[in-house]
Amino acid sequence: MSTSTLATAKAPSPAPTNSRARVIVASLIGTSIEFYDFYVYATAAVLVFPTLFFANADPTVALLASFAVFGVAFIARPVGSIVFGHFGDRIGRKNTLIASLLTMGIATVLIGVLPAATVPGFHVLAPTFLVILRFAQGFGLGGEWSGAALLATENAPKGKRAIYGTFPQLGAPIGFMIANGLFLILNVSMSTAAFASWGWRIPFLGSAVLVIVGLYARFKLVETPAFEAVKESGNVSKLPIARVFKTSWRPLILGTFIMLATYTLFYLMTTFTLTYGTTASSTSTAAAAAKAAGKPFNAAAFVPGLGYSRQSFLLMLIVGVAFFGIFTLVSGPLAERFGRRRLLLVVTGAILVFGFVFAPLFSAGFAGAQGLLIIGFILMGLTFGPMGAVLPELFPANVRYTGSAISYNVSSILGAAVAPFIAVALWQAAHGSTFLVGIYLAAMAAITFVALLISRETRDVDYATNLN
């Protein structure tokens, strides 16, 4: 046998890689499914859960209780980020992502079969199980986002991390549009009574199909080059949570506050606006609606909103979210050209200004309300898109899953878990005005702006070999 033949026979075969299409699909479809599951609950928390699970409470108290359960998932997310981050940095991104998807999907399906509190014997059990399953949803999502972001960015060609990082981010508007589009179809195609009785369960049960599709895409993946490099160097962290707090505590804090304005804006634009937009605009209208539904009406506790029908406002939201998706994609090339920090400083400044015009726009008729949704979601796309690259780039490769997950999910408590609850309370305190809600958004944007000012640019970080 010739020397050249021997050399060819002994040459190692190239390591398997993920194609660009596989990376995009697996990162995008996973977060689309996860956010679909999350939005299904967020929409139901406004439209049906206050009467299904907190039927004996005052309407305002029931709504606040529904939002409180909504916030339980955000408490669970940091717990999930620690658990899934541990395994993501210990055994790899692929298998951890599969586990997080299953956790979220199973919890969502089980919510779809949960009896209402009005069923005999479930007056206490139904709300209790809802809290447990909501915790499981948040626990699963705690490990989903960072894994999907790492899957995309650790497979990205040089100079394209921010562009690749927008693909898992795009799952947010896609999941929102699927979930709320389905709710819109159900609202149009069935009576209010049928929707409240069983129609609301369809989106929850439908997530089973989406989870199967997501699992199929992720089982075909191979591990990311960055994690393979960590293994080959012998620098796999035995206890990533301890290591990240010891060596990367500053990025943990900065990452948490860099995400704060993004989270606050997002949940005000999706959850609070739906509540305010679909609340009756006058006492007489609210009283007539309560009478038609056979429910008691407390005029003293009533706070007016915009008075849109659920169908109309969901359609307005979907229009706004289309801009969210478009500008999420636009943000990637902008973050590569101008740098992550510079882009986010400009956008965060715009969010701060937006907070001061929030109330005047929202009260300026249909054009004002739709304009508010479009502007808010444009800003959302521009601030959310770069986060898929920014947060992971703050951390070394051997603690990247844990670090980015903790920052992202602790910020979810500070910026998202309490946002709808605080917004409703401020709206109630202002007797129907959303001025204080806008000030609240501006304050969160100011905190993020400061965090960005003292952070560093991460565009040129050596992503694969950066270890601690």
TrEMBL record:
Keywords: Cell membrane, Membrane, Transmembrane, Transmembrane helix, Transport. The keyword Transmembrane helix applies. Residues 23-457 form the Major facilitator superfamily (MFS) profile domain. Its main location: membrane. It is a multi-pass membrane protein. The chain crosses the membrane at residues 38-55, 61-84, 96-117, 129-151, 163-186, 198-217, 252-274, 313-331, 343-366, 372-394, 406-429, 435-454. It is found in: Cell membrane. The keyword Transmembrane helix applies. InterPro entries: MFS_dom (IPR020846), MFS_sugar_transport-like (IPR005828), MFS_trans_sf (IPR036259), Sugar_transporter_CS (IPR005829). PANTHER family: INNER MEMBRANE METABOLITE TRANSPORT PROTEIN YHJE (PTHR43045:SF2), SHIKIMATE TRANSPORTER (PTHR43045). This is MFS transporter. It comes from Frondihabitans cladoniiphilus.
